[in-house]
Specification:
alpha/beta; Rossmann fold; 7-stranded parallel β-sheet; 5-stranded parallel β-sheet; 12 strands; 31% helix; 14% strand; elongated; oxidoreductase; D-isomer_DH_CS; oxidoreductase activity, acting on the CH-OH group of donors, NAD or NADP as acceptor; D-isomer_DH_NAD-bd; NAD
Amino acid sequence: MWRGGLNMVYVGVALNESAQYTLKQRIGDEHICFGPIPGDEDEPWPQELCRCEVLMLWGSRVTETLLERLPHVRWIHSVSAGVDSVPFARLQERGILLSNSRGLHGRPISEQIMGTLIAFSRGLHVFWRNQQAHRWDRSYAVDELTRKTLLIVGAGSIGRELARKAKAFDMVVRGVRSFAEPLPYFDAVYSVEDLEALLPDADFVVVLTPLTPKTYHMISTRQLSRMKPSAVLLNYARGPVIDESALVQALKRHQIGGASLDVFEAEPLSPDSPLWTLDNVLLTPHTGGWSPYQDEREVTLFIANWEAFQQHEPLPTAVDLARRY
């Protein structure tokens, strides 16, 4: 029950009963409220939302309009790792803290990526189509992941979990991030300036970097032309990190071996997109990070940030408003 006071928390995402109970126990039933986030200005705005100091919601729901209605908010926690659409300048002006859920989705995303690597290596996507056509065809050149080079663009928490799994398959794992430094499970880590030089040796290129003005279309025609004809490109970051039109052309020309996409420049993907009909593409509807354990992990992460917030310490998953991730 909402009774007013300091550090009132408004949870604007759907959580299961167990997760809600955990939050109430840790924060205090009188300091937390669960409810909707209005879709537009004409909808009723809950009084509890307008009075909150702490807000948990999807990053995509953080808008200029929302902030105008929240004069008391001091900290916003995004349950998504991506916060590319957030009005960063306004947050900076008002001194509002922002945290996200980076690292929360490392296990499910890395599992899906490994499944995709196996599918392309063993030809499972091709054999599935053959099965539907009742066609016995052994012409696909099946391979192993052993000794194949995996290039992870964005060696953050998800990238590190992927590297750990990939080493179990005896892959060569290289990483690219904003600055080069040794990391566990990576054979080598390079700065982003080295990306194009690394592409020709990569058998699989997995994009996991945040979307920022600097990473918009960081994979486009020039980068695709540097890749092996057999290489597979996977995007589990944000759609606009890859130039989708350039990718479609590269796939149609078999300039690269294939692609696996969980995110797109516009979502949901249009029924008219040529990506649907390309035989060297695996598509999933932005489900890579979903897990039945998501609410449990989300609450654990939020509480860690909450404890730091209460002690006026840096938030464990604070977003750098200047760097936008």
